[in-house]
User: Fold this.
Amino acid sequence: MTSHDAIASSEQHVAPKEAWDRIAEGYDMYVAPQEVELANEALTLAGLKPGELFLDVAAGTGGLGLPAARLGARVLGTDWAPAMIERFTARAREEGLARVEGRVMDCHALELEDDIFDITGSLFGVMLVSDQASALREMVRVTKPNGRVLLIAYADPGELEFLNIFMSALKAVVPDFQGLPDDPPPLEFQVSDPKVLRSRLADAGLRDVEVHPTAERPAFRSGQEMWNWVYWGNPIGGMLVDDLTEEQRETMRQTLDGMLRDRSHGADLAVLNNPVNIGIGIK
Assistant:
């Protein structure tokens, strides 16, 4: 069975922490910089204030935590993948963000006391974990009374422009590829429905839950840039293309080039539109 077959037939693929360790350097280089605009929007909606204590759960290399620190928050970033936390703390040092700490920690069982953080958030992290209900309860537990909990997750996968473009380019070189499963969908899309997102946040113990529809807008100059963003953004990206020959990979990158040129309408950058939901509730 090829990697393509394994993904298409898997009910819910859960990548091990070693797979996330493997992509940490690329995630920091190619993915996290594209998350800043969305992170700032979410932090503004959550009402982050300078000096507040912020917890970034399943933080990766700090796509949410570092923007929070740049806005003046005191930040703890947690992730189960040690290499992700290494990159997170290294980036904080490079930027001179002194009030930032990173710890290796499983989001399903945070090694933290109750009622500590003013805001607890997760950007494209807790959206994909295997026991999301448990992780959300942990996020609520460690948040102060009247504090805010923030979850950012992809919306309808059928509307994600990056996914449609990348899958079309892949099918150009692997015509029999069946695509990602949709019954059930990958864990990445378990709260793509805003009603499900709202319900899960309320079930975790939050009140006054609001779901704000918005979009992630990554920008690419070339098919290679988009390839890097997808490949290093999630272990599934690597699984999708690891079986390709070098000739197939080059063909796919050229196909992406052409699709992005069409999308850019002659501009230097092709800016994609990926619908996202920002869920916020009060403890």
Remarks:
- The chain has twelve helices and nine strands.
- The first strand starts at residue 53 and ends at 56.
